[in-house]
Structures are given as C-alpha cells and as structure tokens.
Amino acid sequence: MFDCSMKDPSTFLSGEEMTKRRTPCELNNWVPTVFNRYRESNEAKAYLRLKKGLCKQFLEEVWPLALLTKQLFGDSDQVICEPVLGNQKYDALIEDRRGDAPIQIKVEFTIAVDGYDDHLRMEVLNDKGSANAYGDISVSGTKHTGHKIDIDRSGRDRDELTSNAVRVVTKALRGKANRPYGLNHWLCVKFDDRIWVPNKDDTEAIRASVSSAKQALNLDFAKVFIVGSSGDLLWELT
Predict the structure, then answer these.
(1) Which of 2, 96, 131, 187 is the S-S candidate for 103 at Cβ 3.0 to 4.6 Å?
(2) 12 and 46, same structural domain?
(3) Residue 21: per-residue pLDDT
C-alpha cells in the first residue's frame, strides 16, 4: 500500500507496483489512486507532468492499458493485464481466459501528441499554474542563459482542431510502420480527445480520415486501436 508520508515524488511509484498483474477492473480502480498521489504538492504535480521517473511509462503505457481494457473487457475477471517495463517490442501483456484456451496478446502503446510542444506547455503550467492548450509557442534564450517560453492566447477553430487530431494520430501510427511485430500484437494509440475533438459530431469524420491514412501504412499488427484520454472514445481501425 502507498505510504502517504513519503514526500519525494520519485518514491510515489515503483516498478513492482506498476507491473502487478490485475484484472481490467482492478487496474482501472488503481490508476486514479496514482493520479491522486501526484496531486499532493506542486512538486509532485510537476514531476508527473514532466513525466519524470516511472511517470512516463505510467502515463504512456499503463494508463492507456487501463483505458483500453475497460472498454474492451469491462468487469471481466477472466482477463489479466500485465504492464511490462523494458525495451521489448510490447509494453503490456493481456491474457484472455474467456474462451476454451487462454490467449496471450502483446500490446504496443504510443501517444499522439506533439512531444516537444507538450513538454513546453507543461513547463509553463508548472511555472504559472495555467497554459493555453491551443496557442502557438515561442522559445527564446539558451540552455545557459535560461529559456523563456511564451504561449499566445489564441484559440483554434473547429476545422483546425479536427485536422490536428488527424495529424497527430496519423503521425503516431506512422512511427510504428515498417517494423516487424506479428499477429499476436496489438497497437494502441492514445490521444487527448478532451482537447482535440471539439464536438462529438466530428468524431466519425476524424475516425474516417485516420482509417484512410492507416491504409497507406505497413503496420504489422493484428488489431489497431485508438483510445481517448476521456475514457469514452475507443476506435478499432480496419
């Protein structure tokens, strides 16, 4: 059990705890408790936002595993999820015992995000307490003199948001193309639909565009899923 007396954010999460085998229900009950740990202080919030230590794997692999399995398997206790740390060609194992014979699925995760821009927004959020999710970013200064990050206050119209959603998801898919995986591998792309899907009416248009882009890519996976941070969006791309 997590010791709330620990103040160093690097101690809030261990590899042993993160890779524990859980049912989808157990995993989805555990994930919010981890987020709560990092709400204890501004230091802890910054540690999570900048994906330090094991937070990177938690945000980019374990949380998406929870989102994916909740929607696919619900409360089934015949499915076991096991995050895997390391440099192998998968980030998690799913053992599906619902049929006559257990099936093991290897899942590779990736995130649809502009990584450098996202990091800069998190720096501004940590420094100022808020950051425009849509504004253009400019950086001045150097590593030695200190850099200054400015985010303008502009927004994005509906067409810009939907086109950007297609762009970042397609970019994430492209990053996994032309690599050998196999028929027992799934690919899951997580993106923040809370930001990039302005209207539910846009969902199918974005999905259609992403599906079309996928057809042009050589992806060696049995199934490809797109999962949203909201917990409400799950697409299987055909």
Answers:
(1) 96
(2) yes
(3) 98
Q: What is the pLDDT of residues 166-184, one digit of tens each?
A: 999 999 999 999 999 999 9
Q: Which two tokens stand for residue 179?
A: 């690599």
Burial label for 33, CB within 10 Å (0-12, 13-18, 19+), is: exposed
Q: At which residue do the structure tokens 């400015």 appear? A: 150
Residue 77 lies in a domain: yes
The verdict on 32 and 60 lying in the same domain is yes
Q: Is the pLDDT of residue 147 over 90?
A: no
Question: Could you give the 3-state DSSP secondary structure of residue 114?
Answer: coil
- Find all residues with CB under 8 Å of 165, minimum gap 6, and list them: 112, 191, 193, 196, 197, 206
Indicate if 122 and 69 belong to the same structural domain.
Answer: no
In angstroms, rounded to a whole number, what is the distance separating the alpha carbons of residues 104 and 186? 11
Same structural domain, 123 and 97: no
Q: Which domain range does residue 26 map to? A: 1-101
